[in-house]
Amino acid sequence: MDKANSRLILIVLVAVGLVTAVCWVLPRRIAMERASRTVETALDYDAYSEYFHAQGIEEDAGFKDQLASGASAVAFNENYLSTLQLNGHVKLYSGTDLPKYRTLENLPEGALSVAVRQYLVVYDDDTFQDLMTMCKLLVGSDKVTEWGRPANSTHASSSQPRIIEVVGSGRFLNSVGLGFSSALVDHFRRMGFNIVLRPENKTNLGPGLIDGYFSAMPKADYVVFGGIRNEALGYPVEACMDEVLKQLDAHGLRLGIVEVPSPKSALKGEEYLAQRYCRMAVRVQSIAPAQLARVPPPDALDMFQLGVRERNVRMIFLRPYADPFGTDTLTDTNIHYLQSIRDMLAANHFHLGVASVFPDIASLP
Fold first, then answer.
1. How far apart are CA 39 and CA 353, in angstroms?
2. To the nearest 10°, the Cα dihedral for 303, 304, 306, 312?
3. d(C-alpha 163, C-alpha 67), whole Å
4. Is the peptide bond before 236 cis (omega within 30 degrees of 0)?
5. What is the DSSP letter of 97?
6. For the CA atoms of the chain, what is the radius of gyration?
7. How far apart are CA 24 and CA 276, in angstroms?
8. Among 233, 99, 113, residue whose Cα is nearest residue 176
9. Angstrom distance (rounded) from CA 30 to CA 191
10. DSSP codes of every residue in 269-338
11. Among residues 294, 304, 220, which one has the least CA distance to residue 259?
12. Which of 23, 57, 222, 274 is the most buried if burial means most Cβ atoms within 10 Å?
């Protein structure tokens, strides 16, 4: 075959590919994008809760105002022991603290004064159940003991603390995410919000325990992995990440994939999960707190509009402004910010709700 014929065949093949793309794939992609018009606006619970408290706004009232102004979901990070202690749900005592605090907290007489034993004094039943489940997953059921209510308690009153003994280091308990507050998450669902959970990786959870972790999570609509390790749950073990995929599917969860400024910032393991779960993957856009401090609301609105229209972003992850804009008060700044996003979506023929997903174009008939 001479060079002229080879060149002709190559041109024909390229032309056939272009025709196929224009006449087959492109119209279907356009139709799919036109049909996928639902966008979720998710509030970072920790950031908004801190903002409301700083402004003297009652938390439920503040979130209800955001819901009325265009928010549709709330995103929850895992609890840390430091936060639970700060909020008055828990106190942690090492075994070496027992001689000093045994009488103060009515710690059990059978408790051992050794450093490898930790005692969680828990002041509400919901937190107690959440912590019992997570501690058993993280360190093993054989290393977790429920002491119940103090021995001198005359009745099982919910005002009496309950005690969990954990065999392990206090440093470990202070450094690991301890799951989610089921009661808090369920409360926000009843308020009318969709739910986004942000699990953190736990390298001590093998494939056989990941199903237990998902079963312990409160009912949710999305998982968007996060945490200081910047790793998806199960990373770097493929068998663990495959179990995560299985559990995402079993629980009907969408997987949020957060846009990042460079590949180096990407969450480890996220690409592996996204490629295998693309039919339920959602592109998420957020503005980091440091950047938000420099970007006025109109510019942030333009960024989100571009993401939704041009990059198929279907979840906008929101944090509140810390300073007022223009002549608005800070409260009005954040209300108007949400309202402007809601109005922008409506003007572009999008609507709020559980985020649309985009099936693999190659799987379309």
1. 6
2. 140
3. 37
4. yes
5. G
6. 25
7. 24
8. 233
9. 35
10. THHHHHHHSGGGEEEEEE--HHHHTTS-HHHHHHHHHHHHHHS-EEEEEE---SS--TTS-HHHHHHHHH
11. 304
12. 222
Query: Where do we find the tokens 């799987």?
Result: 363
- The length of the chain in residues reads 365
Token reading at 319: 């944090």
